[in-house]
Amino acid sequence: AVPSIKIGVQVPITGAYADEGQGIEKAVKLLAEEQNAKGGLIGRKIEVKVCDDEGKASQAAICARQLVDDGVVAVIGSYTSGAALAAEPIYARAKVIQTSDGTSNKLIEKGYNTWFGNAPPNSAEAKFTAHYLVDVRHFKHIAVMTDHSSYATGLAAAVIKNVEADHGDIVDKSYINASAQNFTPILTKLKSMHPDVIYFSGYYSEGGLIRAQMVQLGMKATFVGGDANENVAFAKIAGSAAKGAIIINVPAPQDLPYPAAKRFLASYKAKYRELPPSIYTLTNADGMRAVMQAIEKTHGVKPTKIENYLHHMKEFDGLTGDFTWNRRGERIGTAFTAFEVQGNGSYRIVYPKPKAG
Amino acid sequence: MSLLDIADLRVNYGQIEALKGISLTVSKREIIAILGANGAGKTTLMRTISGLLLPRSGTIHFDGVGITKLGADRIVRRGIAQSPEGRRVFGTLTVLENLRLGGFTRPHGEIAGSLDFVMSMFPRLAERRGQFAGTLSGGEQQMLAIGRALMAKPRLLLLDEPSLGLAPIIVQAIFRSLRQIARTGVTVLLVEQNARMALKLADRGYVLEVGRIVLTGEADTLLGSSEIQTAYLGGERSDGASLLS
Amino acid sequence: MSALLELQGAGISFGGLHAVDDLSFAVEKGHIVALIGPNGAGKTTVFNMITGVYRPTKGKVCFQGQEITGWQPHAIARAGIMRTFQTIRLFPAMSVFENVRAGGHLRAQQYWWQGMLSLPAQRREETALAERTHEILCKLDLDRFANEPATSLPYGVQRRVELARTLAAEPKLVILDEPAAGLNDAESSALNRTIFGIRDSGITVLLVEHDMNVVMNVTDHIVVINFGRKIAEGNAAAIRSNPQVIEAYLGRDENEAENVT
Amino acid sequence: MGTFIQQVFNGLTVGGIYALIALGYTMVYGVMRLINFAHGDLCILGAFIGLTMLTSTAGSGHPGPALLLLAFVVAIVLVAAAGVVLELVAYRPLRKADRLAAVISALGASLLIENGIMLIWGPEVAVFPSGLLPRITWHAAGASISFVQVMIIVASIFLMAALYLFVNHTRFGTAIRAAAIDQDAARLMGINVNRVIAIVFVIGPTLGAVGGLFIGIYYREAYFTMGWTYGLYAFIAAILGGIGNIPGAMLGGVLLGLFNAFAAGYVSSSWQNAITFALLIAILLVRPTGLLGERVAEKV
Amino acid sequence: MDAKLKPLSQSVSIKGDTLFSRRIGLKGARRIAGGLWVLGLFVPALFDNAWISIAAIFAIYGIVALSEDIILGRAGMFDMGHAGYFGIGAYVTAILNVTFGWPIFATIPFAILVSAGVGALLAAPLIRLRGDYLLVATIGFNAIFVLAMRNNLGGITGGSGGITDIGVPFLFGFQLASQSAMFWLDWVVLGIVLVLMRNLDASEFGRTLRYLKQDELASTTLGVDSRMVKTLAFAIGAGLAGLAGTLFAVQISTVSPSSFVFTESVTLFAIVIVGGQGSIPGVLLGTALMFILPQIFRDFAQYRYLIFGFAMIAVMVLRPQGLWPQRSVRA
Ligand SMILES: Nc1ncnc2c1ncn2[C@@H]1O[C@H](COP(=O)(O)OP(=O)(O)OP(=O)(O)O)[C@@H](O)[C@H]1O
Ligand SMILES: Nc1ncnc2c1ncn2[C@@H]1O[C@H](COP(=O)(O)OP(=O)(O)OP(=O)(O)O)[C@@H](O)[C@H]1O
Ligand SMILES: CC(C)C[C@H](N)C(=O)O
Ligand SMILES: [Mg+2]
Ligand SMILES: [Mg+2]
């Protein structure tokens, strides 16, 4: 029989980001199944190998070795930049394609050929964020909060740099510990500084709590969160306090106008009886789709050929919009939006102003 | 009528058989001395009667009722209290709390009276009533252990080497009180190394050897027996324990 | 000749309690000295002060003319004082052999890294240590228990093991806290001979004991304390007839058993 | 000033929760010398059970506080039952063994409960319904304190005091303390040690379930690994106060909460835990058995 | 009189077991252990890369667990922060190699010395603490260490993502890049550590640790300088853990705080107890169970820790002394 094509999934199946990891796993498996139902890829079945990196760098490195030892062609994941970073050199040395939603700029600094970010990098997000905070909303006093992850620290630093370049005033930069729950001490301190806005560059699990505790403490400042706050759990955790919070990211799944995206969401819902937790289920699905397309187009699983194809592909028709990859594996060609969380937990795009109709 | 009736009791520590078929009877108001060399199984016997060890076979009857399989706490409620080897006082509780615990099974109202009795028997305990038992001297702890057992107002009092570590004057006092206590209707089972004193006090005695009863009789007879004389009362030992000389 | 061990006005208090107060006495080299007194008189506390387990709050302790007040226990051991405990303290998960070998700790010269590298000098020393331990076990008639777990043995044997452990350190002074407790008369007579044997091998002995069979028959000198203070001092005959000692400690008659009935 | 007062309340709220959990640690430790590493997970089990009650009764038309009370009762009963079973299965067989064996058994139990929770309730964050309690917030001198916070602080003080009185001023309490020191000797006093231990394993988890549910109500979320984190902090609180000592656990919990608040609020939020731990170590160096721990010298 | 008195000398039973026969037993066990180690050398020839890397990880964690056992199993000090020392070694190697370009082998002495130094420095004041209080203090140390690494202490630890892309060791001009080569390196170091541990147990210092564990007061009155000995035990344990840290950094090629968190210390602690305190084969068996099984049973994904927790309880209840307890007298 012809050997199967092995695709790895390295994501947090357990831990704080379990729902995101499981969403990615589900998306990849769904795509593989659909493809196999069509007779597979270049005549070979796709076999998905999953490894739980728990969202931790250490476990990610172990996963990377395991998946490499399993003989995968490409790996989808991980969700967090930290886990993707730890695995990156291992995949690069083994010539395994890696596509992840990790947006930390560190991921592209090393210039590995095997790296393909399926979400736009932090540098772009930071530029947009600074513009939004300073030029659009005209916030006078900006407080920045971040956790210690590679992604959040990098994003916070980039936002601060861009805000300062735009002549905005950063009143404070504070660190929190991810996995903590009590942020009232730090918020109390910030409250006494009277910021107009608190920008949080970490993940939704803390973002939701921060937002809730701001309201509990009677803080009037606006909450603006980075892309990792986009997850259905944000609004659930923040509860009634979620209303009015702003999140900056590429458009959310429901806001994707493309037919392919609508189809994908429908079959996802049919199969798993729920919607994906965030847009990253779809960006990673795009990663998987791009890899499959490359294998198909190059008629094989030669890493160099696949890399080459992906780097030079013109306008990939993504579920999350058309994009291309530059030489460094950076995703190019997706616009950011700022959206506001509504009372029912849905999002409304507030900037750029949606064109009527 | 016999108060305590033990038949063919066998007790093991893992593979080691510590009691190899012990039978004995104790009548009401008797004072019984149990003698035996180190490791003979005296403590094992006491612990088994109290229910801290489960025998492998054999039976124990107290006042006609089988208590062989009863838990230690239920046995106390039936009227058997023990002052254990090694004293086992509650170190981080005060002397007073220790004594009160001795009366744990008794109605609240009766405790005060017993406290007075014990404190008059051991005035040192009254002086030290607020001190943590763990910081008492060895002898003071021994007094506390005996006093605590008395607090239960038992019908059968088990004393495992009560004279251990006590000054001669206290030992005399304790043995005098034991006689008094026995007169009030308490039966006493006494393990002692101080064989002479124990046999002077006791009505009858048993001699244990490697888990078996090897000798029993009236205390006076035992005191006069040559075996007891040589083995326990200071005669020469055959065993080569005369050392470094 | 000056005393081997000397206490000068030593005292310690716990909270408000003066457990030992202004106590002075001396132990001459080569003697067997007993410290006696009622329960709670402070005897064990005195031992604890001498061996550094407690730090005296008053006075001085001198050993071989050198002040050792407040030294750490291990330093005092190094100076040549070894002790046993009122409640036996053997290493519970070790055999008799291993327990006694532990006494030779101070005799071992090896450094930790020599041990880890198993250098020849270290191995030679190990053999010597094992041989010496066996000698002591034989001397105290413990050789047949050598491989028994120490704490499952009968009480009397455990006491002897503890004694052997102190002797393995080749001390100048051994301090014994109630060595005869739990022994019957026959056994305590045997203990008397052991104590003489220790003295004859050149080691000074200081002991606490309530067993008059031991105290009156082996000691060269007796110190009596009550409430932490010395109330009498002298040889056996003198102490036996001292009214204060009789009243506080011995009771009406030393051969007290007769008086019980 | 307002900021300071606010920080005190911030600390007290969390400290109260730590204290409730720490009391359970200290009780079990006191009697069995066992660090019950599964205690934190039992607490969070309480939170999840309570959550299930709340979501399944939501919309039944009964008033919020009544539903909340029901949730507390059910959580307490089930968690206490789990505690007793745990003792029976994982700890009782090890009573005579090296105490570390029981500690490892407790770690195993912790993993078991934690992952059991994950399998039942899923690995994602579970969110509590809002609006169960009056949304009252008091504002004074620039500080805000909510009804939930007051409830947590008051309840933990009340439960601690009740427990203290029970343990130190009742016969049964003395029995608990006696069993804590020497089980065989306690049995010789007529104390049913098995029952004492079973009751301790009812009291500890009961307080834990209350603490766990408070966490859920206060933060409005629960997830399966949370028990480990809270358990660790509560254990540290118990040690800080002197493990085995009831007011100590309370004091330790509150201090830990305050340290956390002040470290994050006045020094550095990113070094918050380091500062807290450094303070903890410093305190232990000065008082090696905790603030209120027993200091009975070993008598030889 | 119902029986005759027997001579007293029979009142104590004497077991036939002699020191000599025990020695044979011990030697036999050592031969088996040595044989297994030699067999291990053939792992790369017989298994695929997945298994070789599991074997390499086993060797590394085996060393850390053995070093924890010096402190916990032998000296009886509750060290629940051991992953910290392991981490120090790994970070020293990572920083020297990645930031300063040192060859891996040159970093080893520093990894050992820095960990040992921190171990000694911390232990010196902390060993006054007993039992659970020491346990919490060491947890505290571990937490502080992890936080310091997360906070990118001095700008050299790389924050929570840690340091990636650690190089491979060179030996006599050969690059030990393949998984088999790395495995042999780990395996040889494990062998050396095993010999050191065995020697330790047979030396006065090793015994002194056990005296302290069983009765500190009695030990000090026998002349044991407990402070010094305990500090030294911490230093040696920490130093060996640091050595393993180097190997870990090389094997995983990434160091990050999450590898050295308190939970890892708990696992190390558990290995020693599950395997058998003070027992070399026990600790290795414990390592195999606690670190390797979860790796092998990855396919059980969600159930694996549930099963694992259940197994921990079962092992302790059925074998409270550990799977392979130290050969000692049974009390
Ligand atoms: N916990 C135990 N485990 C194993 N063996 C034990 C245990 N306790 C006692 N033994 C053994 O059982 C036998 C009887 O011991 P026991 O303590 O009953 O003797 P005893 O007559 O009270 O001696 P002593 O005069 O020393 O108090 C001894 O051989 C002893 O070694
Ligand atoms: N650590 C301590 N804290 C408080 N009191 C103590 C402490 N140690 C000893 N004591 C008290 O000091 C007194 C002397 O105790 P010590 O143990 O020295 O007596 P002893 O003479 O050895 O008595 P025994 O013959 O009964 O052993 C006792 O009253 C005891 O309660
Ligand atoms: C999926 C995203 C929330 C991940 C985040 N942007 C990161 O790089 O870690
Ligand atoms: Mg006995
Ligand atoms: Mg004494």
Fold and architecture overview:
- The complex is a heteropentamer of chains A (about 350), B (about 240), C (about 260), D (about 300) and E (about 325).
- Chain C has ten helices and ten strands.
- Chain C has about 260 residues and is an alpha/beta fold.
- Chain C folds into two domains: about 170 residues, Rossmann fold, CATH 3.40.50.300; about 80 residues, no CATH class.
- Chain C is globular and about 60 Å long.
- With about 300 residues, chain D is mainly alpha-helical.
- A two-stranded antiparallel ribbon of chain D has the order 1-4. In chain D, strands 2-3 form a two-stranded antiparallel ribbon.
- The longest helix of chain D has about 30 residues.
- In chain E, about 70% of the residues lie in helices and about 0% in strands.
- In chain E, the strands form two sheets. Chain E has a two-stranded antiparallel ribbon.
- The longest helix of chain E is centred in the C-terminal third of the chain and has 27 residues.
- Chains in contact: A-D, A-E, B-C, B-D, B-E, C-D, C-E, D-E.
- Chains B and C meet through helix 6, helix 7, helix 8 and helix 10 of B and helix 6, helix 7 and helix 10 of C.
- Bound molecules: adenosine-5'-triphosphate (2 copies), leucine and magnesium ion (2 copies).
- One adenosine-5'-triphosphate (ATP) sits at the interface of chains B and C.
Short description:
Chain A is globular and about 70 Å long. In chain A, helix 1 runs parallel beside helix 11. By secondary structure, chain A is α/β, with parallel strands linked by helices.
Spatial sequence of strands, sheet with the most strands of chain B: 6-7-8-3-9-10
**Number of H/I helices of chain A:** 12
User: What distance lies between the first and last C-alpha atoms of chain B, to the nearest angstrom?
Assistant: 53 Å
Q: What fraction, in percent, of the residue positions of chain A are helical? A: 40-55%
**Gross geometry of chain B:** globular
| Oligomerization state | heteropentamer
Largest sheet of chain A: 7 strands, mixed
Strand content of chain A: 15-25%
Task: Report helical residue fraction of chain B.
Answer: 25-40%
Q: What is the rounded distance between the termini of chain A?
A: 54 Å
Subcellular location (chain D): Cell membrane
Family (chain D): Belongs to the binding-protein-dependent transport system permease family. LivHM subfamily.
Keywords (chain D): Amino-acid transport, Cell inner membrane, Cell membrane, Membrane, Transmembrane, Transmembrane helix, Transport
Transmembrane segments (chain D): 12-30, 42-60, 66-88, 100-121, 141-167, 196-219
